[in-house]
Amino acid sequence: MDYGDITKTGNLIQEQSKSVDLLRQEVMKILVGQEHLLDRMLMALITGGHILLEGVPGLAKTTAVKTLAQAVGLKFQRISFTPDLLPADLIGTMIYDPKSGSFSAKKGPVFTNLLLADEINRAPAKVQSALLEAMQEHQVTIGDTTYPLPEPFLVMATQNPIEHEGTYPLPEAQIDRFMLKCKVSYPSKDDERRIMNRFTRKLTAQINVAMTADQITGLRDLLEQVYCDEKVGDYILDLVLATRKPSVYGIAIDHQIEYGASPRATLYLNLVSRANAMLHGRGYATPQDVKEIAYDVLRHRIMLTYEAEAEEVTSEDVITRLLNEIPVP
């Protein structure tokens, strides 16, 4: 461990924090409260991971993503997922030109930097599989040709948890591709008062570009320099392994867990812990960073048994138990 390097990284982060603070200010011209949501979206932006936002209608999930896209000056596309959506509506298709007698590719809205997949669980499996390739491989196949997607590319999807008629539950393989699943909660009374005062009049706020694609690339390069101690790494491994075999750690909840978190959880816990440290102006990750983001990384990666569901145990209850009982270094 080189303290000099950590100090140097910390100083670089402090310099970059001005642009991050400016970005926050621009987004907060529209978004009221929801600091937790904004932090998670910034972490997704810094790490290049995809994020799933779950909450009841009217909590500004779509507004938050649109405003962030405006403030970072990236190319932005929104797709409202519906049951009649086809893969071609998402990725594009081959168009026949009668003059030349040949086919050419017409690229779909997925060719963007920031894709808002609105109500993602309303589209059928064939659309989900088309999006899956884009999310995982950062490329799309149209006809016989594979086209790379522009960089940076990330998907921010929204999902309504209370209405299940006419919806298609996301496949486990696709859910696992989302780095974070963020639950968007109701605003506090004070925040709701600010919402009422702000949005019952004509909105005059102008969103300015506060961060460029080059600055985002710079933040991603800086993230690689954020230090994660071996003990913090061991803590991450213990958390993830305990979701698979909790009894090994003396936690008697094996009967509640059908499947634990995949190795992606280990990678994402490391990445997002370091991104959280960056947002707090530090050049090193701590166990507290891991604890702060554990729910968002793990809640959609733990599959519970029928027995657990009968006992009304949630994946968040399991995570809370693990965080409380696994020793912190």
Describe what you observe in this structure.
There is one protein chain. A 5-stranded parallel sheet has the order 2-5-8-1-9. It folds into 2 domains: 3-83 and 111-198 and 212-218, Rossmann fold (3-Layer(aba) Sandwich); 226-325, Magnesium chelatase subunit I, C-Terminal domain (Helicase, Ruva Protein, domain 3), CATH 1.10.8. The chain has 13 helices and 13 strands. The protein is of the alpha/beta class and 329 residues long. A hairpin with a 2-residue loop joins β6 (139-142) and β7 (145-148). The longest helix has 25 residues, at 3-27. 47% of the residues lie in helices and 17% in strands.
Count of beta strands: 13
At the first level of CATH, the class of the largest domain is: Alpha Beta
> Which strands sit side by side, in order, in the main sheet?
2-5-8-1-9
Number of helices: 13
Helix content percent band: 40-55%
The SSE order reads HHEHEHEEEHEEEHEHHEHEHEHEHH
Mean pLDDT over the residues:
83
User: What is the CATH topology classification name of the largest domain?
Assistant: Rossmann fold
Structural class: alpha/beta
Q: Radius of gyration, rounded?
A: 21 Å
- Number of structurally distinct domains: 2
- CA distance, first residue to last residue: 17 Å
Main sheet record = 5 strands, parallel
Q: How much strand content do the residues show?
A: 15-25%
Shape label? globular
CATH architecture of the largest domain: 3-Layer(aba) Sandwich
Please identify which CATH superfamily of the largest domain we are dealing with: P-loop containing nucleotide triphosphate hydrolases
Poorly predicted ranges: none
